């Protein structure tokens, strides 16, 4: 007997030539699902065009600083279908937003001198759900800094791949620099003072004990760095500039105002002369008091009473000697004061200098560290006696907190700003 599939007649009769006209399971459902998906896509696309629904086109929300532009795409995207054109071009350098759109609101400094100008969006990538676009990923920095000797042989900077593992020691410690300030100060002496019962100064000492480092070191308006220390605000309450005359005078009328910015020894001399002349006019009987003193014209002769007195010029000369040459005068804080050459010449005083910023290539915020004690980072101050002592923390001090396992941020943008200000 011949099998059906081997018999051409039976095989022809068994074929269903109109099979494509009858619905079949998988093909039927595939067609239905295709139609449903197409209709759903069309509905979603139509809804996304409604006012207030443009966020449906975004890959992720905009940064916090751009929240007001979340529904105003044309503020940054100046022409239509920019993201689509970028996607189809497969060119990573082609951007959806040009620099002109960024610079309408943001006035930033130029790039680093070593780096060619690049587009803003290459580093500051929007629609990534970031709270702050300035916090670029470390990869944006380490793609150059991981091998700077190859890219910039003359840069003189170390290889850095992360703060936790390869960041070099701060330059001030690496180069063994000293404090360049020329105002003499002993931190240890001021941090270990005891009540001395010195009358008015005791009030200042009480404040010093209560406030500690904050008595002199107060944050600036922004809270990032410390405001400058000045004689008038922080020193004169305990260290007034006083001239001790040889005659007793009431009250504090012998105080001399400390010179301000831009002033020098000539201004101090003017203040001294004005004060002495005012005292001579107000207290002539004390300042120019004449006394009778025994005087022997020659040995064996009878003593003769002679009147002697203190002149205005003598008071002026004594006051200037105290200020310019005495141990408790200007030299107490200005040890590099040079004596004047020749009679009556004023001393030379180099311009006073205290560093305002130490790590100039980084940023810091004292306000963010307010829960810590000053000595947690500046512990050297407890034993510092010399002005040249550097009291900055070292890299290992920062790594105690700024380490991924502990939790404090340690990315490049936490401490460094790329654009020159």
Write up this protein:
The chain is mainly alpha-helical and 421 residues long. Among the domains are: 64-113, no CATH class; 171-229 and 354-393, no CATH class. It has helices at residues 8-14, 25-48, 82-89, 99-103, 120-123, 138-145, 148-151, 171-174, 187-191, 200-211, 231-235, 265-282, 284-287, 312-325, 374-377, 395-399, and strands at residues 290-295, 304-309. A two-stranded antiparallel ribbon has the order 1-2. Strand 1 and strand 2 form a beta hairpin. Helix 12 runs antiparallel to helix 14 (312-325). The longest helix has 24 residues, at 25-48. The model is unreliable at 305-309 (pLDDT under 50).
Compact overview of the structure:
The protein has 16 helices and two strands.
Please tag this protein with its features.
elongated, two-stranded antiparallel ribbon, mainly alpha, single chain, 16 helices, 421 residues, 3% strand
Individual helix count = 16
The topology string of helices and strands comes to HHHHHHHHHHHHHEEHHH
Major pleated sheet: 2 strands, antiparallel
Distance between the termini: 98 Å
Q: Enumerate the strands of the largest sheet in spatial order, edge to edge or round the barrel.
A: 1-2
**Global outline:** elongated
Q: Which regions have little confidence, pLDDT < 50, spanning 5+ residues?
A: 305-309
**Quaternary structure annotation:** single chain
Strands, count: 2
Determine the structural class based on helices, strands and strand pairing.
mainly alpha
Proportion of residues in β-strands: under 5%
**Average pLDDT value?**
80
User: Helix content range of the residues, please?
Assistant: 25-40%
Our Rg estimate from Cα atoms comes to 41 Å
